[in-house]
Amino acid sequence: MTATSEEHAALRIASGSKPFVEPLLLGARLKQIRLANQWTLEDVSQRTGLARSTLSKIENDQVSPTFSVVQKLTTGLNIDLPQLFTPPKRERYTMGRRDLTRKDKGQLHPTPTYEHELLGHQLAQKRMIPFKTIVRARNFDEYHQWVRHDGEEFLMVLHGDIMLYSEFYAPLLLVEGDSIYFDSDMGHALVSTSADDAVVLSVCTRGDLA
């Protein structure tokens, strides 16, 4: 078995006379492991043979642990040495945001070929941009250039039929209920082929509407 760079570093200072890792890194990681296992400081003390006061100082970044201390931690907690070098995961905070859009109350964004209705438009810094679109174009020639924007797009036909033109594929007919997922930086364009203008629902990951 080949030793890792961390293990080589450990061997070089195995005398225990020098700090092995920065206390901030080890302290946060030790506390994360302890809380994840629902251990008290006394539990960890009994497992490692280290005093509670020492463990508390490590967790609060008040001491720089030596290799001998780290060795007791890895042995007593039954973890591998590299695990102590893994940065603690950031805690996730759910803000519980929501934005209701009543029927036909979205933000209108008309273009010569589409009539977009942006949904959830009052919510800032979204990861997705949902919108409902009436496809006014009736011929591909109405587009002077490809529609393209960063990210990815999911599209579902809510009413009518459309022809989806795309840069790298043959034109594709989509009827009511059909859906497609594609890279939206690929040139694309929609044309209504049904008697009425088609209506589609689209969700983009990011980028400006064209």
From TrEMBL:
Keyword field: DNA-binding
Q: Where are the transmembrane segments?
A: none
Question: Which CDD domains does the annotation name?
Answer: cupin_XRE_C, HTH_XRE
Looking up SUPFAM superfamilies in the UniProt record yields: lambda repressor-like DNA-binding domains, RmlC-like cupins
Q: Per UniProt, what is one Pfam family of this protein?
A: Cupin_2
Taking every annotated instance into account, which residue ranges of this chain make up the domain HTH cro/C1-type? Answer: 30-84
Matching PANTHER family, A to Z? BLR4304 PROTEIN, HTH-TYPE TRANSCRIPTIONAL REGULATOR
Q: What is this protein called?
A: Helix-turn-helix transcriptional regulator
